[in-house]
Every structure is written in C-alpha cells, then in structure tokens.
C-alpha cells in the first residue's frame, strides 16, 4: 500500500462534504474519483494534498521519497507575463529538475513550440496543459490530478491518457478526479464513486458493475441517483 485514508471526513458548517471514509490505495494503480457536481471529488483531493484539513481522520503516505506526491489543481492562474519555459524553470528550481526534463515535459504536453510565448495569451486548454506540465516535472511516486481533462480538446484528452499510461508503465500511482465516465473507463484500475459526499463504490469496473447489477457506469450512476432520491 502507498496511501491510506483512515476515517477521513470533511464537514463545512453542518454538512458533510465528505462522509467518513477508509481507503487503501496500492502502488502502481490508477484510481479515478468519479461523481457529479458537488459529489466531494475536489474535497477528497484537497484533503489528500493537505490543502484542506479533514474534520476527522488521518491520511498516511507510505512513500519513501522526500516529495511524496505531485499535484495538478483543477485550474492554475499562472502569471500572464511569463512564458511556459520561465514558469517550468521556476518550479524546476524547487524540484531540482534538469533542463532536459523541462524540455521533455513541454514536448509531452505539446507546448514546446509555445515555450517562449506569454501565457497571458493562452487558451484554457493550453493553460491546462501547462498545469499538467508543472505536475509532471516532479519525479515522485504519486500523481494527484483534479479534473485534468477539463478544457482539453479531444486530441489532448487522448494525449493526456497516453501520459497517464506512461506513468502507469513507470509504476507510478495516479489519483484522478473526473466527472467524465469515459475517463474512468479508459484509464482506471479502480474507480471510486462519490455521491453527495458519500463513497458509494470502490473497486474495478467489473466489481462495480456486479455490485450494482449494471452494465455501464452510466447505469450505475442512474441507479445510485434513483436509490438516493427514493431514500429522500
Ligand atoms: N469551502 C467550502 N465551504 C462550504 N462548502 C463547500 C466548500 N467546498 C466545497 N463545499 C461543498 O462540499 C460539497 C462537495 O464539493 P466538491 O467541490 O468537493 O465537489 P466536486 O465533486 O469536486 O464537484 P464539482 O464536479 O462540481 O467540482 C459541495 O456541496 C460543496 O458545495
């Protein structure tokens, strides 16, 4: 196991954004946190990364590295007057990253040709790819990505999935949040389904389909939705 959540919960005022959850994540797996708007995906990610303090419980990283995870937030406001290369060099200094790695990451996210352009003129998708690039700079065991495919066009969604595949081949652990079920189907080893701050399922797609007697994630979501509505 590389990451452990024990009795993690988050309450804002009187409402649970995340009801208490225990979770074990194994090394080398890609976990997709799936759920609709307000399900608790970002809350869980923020607790994992330490951005938010949990109301109860403890997160334990079992990585032996100094930097135990890299993080891609759902959006980043990069200083508009800087260029991708300047921004990645800045991050690279803290991470002790070599120039070659910065160049490689810029290639991987398709920003090599734009490396000297000011990011103030970037589209949402280009900024999101730079956001992914800053996350990929770190050589670490766990990559935590919050809605990484947001704003990406279909070509870059496919490229993103290839980047994830490469990380998996290197034995990295990846935690991705997404409300796009196709993302989960294509990249997840295990899917965690959140609904109204509650973990409704955690397992492989086959396990989840069996548990809910469904044949697709869409059906699983509809079935959870119906049950929750019926329960009031
Ligand atoms: N800082 C906050 N203060 C109060 N409530 C919050 C705060 N952050 C999140 N919430 C609430 O917690 C719940 C879960 O929100 P969260 O952002 O984790 O959902 P999400 O699954 O990431 O949704 P989305 O796909 O819409 O981004 C929501 O009801 C949200 O309104």
Automatic annotation (TrEMBL):
Residues 3-221 form the ABC transporter domain. GO terms for molecular function: ATP binding. It holds the Pfam family ABC_tran. It comes from the Bacteria. The keyword rRNA-binding does not apply. Keywords: ATP-binding, Nucleotide-binding, Transport. SMART domains: AAA. This is ABC-2 type transport system ATP-binding protein. It comes from Cytobacillus eiseniae.
